[in-house]
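Lab meeting minutes (informal)
Scribe: AK
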Amino acid sequence: MRTFVLIVLFLLSEAIGIVFGELFFHLYLKAIPPMAHSDFNAGASRLMHDLYGAGLGVVIFLWALVGMGTGSLLRRPPKPQAK
């Protein structure tokens, strides 16, 4: 079950990262005038923005793992049962 949760967390983190990459790519297209870029520049920029988004997804995943680990460390240990 834990492996399934980690896989889903990774996939969701990557999806969020790629959405941010696409968002920044569209901001790039709006910021650069059409005369200033070619199809090659737009394609290369899209690739780099998608790679940036994938890297961001990995960072989000790692931060989530740190948060999960910290949360488990901060939990109080169970009280010992009296004999």
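Next up, CB showed the second protein from the same session:
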Amino acid sequence: MASSTASKWLIGCGVGCLFVGLVVVAIATGGVMFFRDTLKGFDAAVEARADLEQRFGKQWEFTPWPNGEIPADRIERFIGVRDGTAEARRQIADKFAAIPMSESEAQELDSKPTGEKALSIFKIVGSALGLGAELGDFFEARNNSLLEREMGMGEYTYLYVVTYYSWLGHSAGDGPQTGRDQDGSIDVEIEHVQSERRMHDDLVSMLRNQLEQDSTSTTDEWVALLTTEIDAMERDSRRSPWQEGLPPAMLESLEPYRDRLVDSYDPISNAFELVINKKDGWSITAD
């Protein structure tokens, strides 16, 4: 995905022939290492994901806590997972930072002398090719951090969405910047790889699990509030849970951790945070 984006951008700058030559060199000298390193991270992530599902079930099977309260220990574990992916997230951000993502950056590159332009393009190609390995390392780090802190992907997804989208107001569409010039010659578009529909359906299932759980502490007020929220989500496939404001019990649970949670959000890596990796033969897919 990222390398094809870089190709579209570079060809749009009018240096397509030079770019093609550099890609041939890059593939001839580093292709085997690139694919080996890329698959290594993804393979480890897929294995860890299988362990997560065996121990904690599928994402949609997670049941949030009664009355909206979030135990402090679970928030601490969530922050621990975020800490465990911090370095991998930084590497992803560094790779994207090296790839021109705006019209002004494209014009700046195109204005450089031929030799300097060639060197810059070579570095851009290297960064684009390296993204696959960095993403594989990120998924591996995330899944291993979840295993270490005994948290399933369902609970992590629930806390991620409720914290960053519903409470702190970040957008589910956050990700690497995109850009387009007026005549269409620059067309940089990083696909948002997370399946928003899949996540939405999983979250509705989680709220239903929460509504149907057998708990003597559940109040009638909470049941009515949760029922209304489920109905609203079922009518709007793009809705995040509690997007108009969290219930008081959830706010009371999260507020003591506000600063740490604010600092742990990364808008660039957001596009990949809740991706689920699957392997089919030699293919790695994301959902």
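CB comment: The two ends are 14 Å apart (CA to CA).
No objections, moving on.
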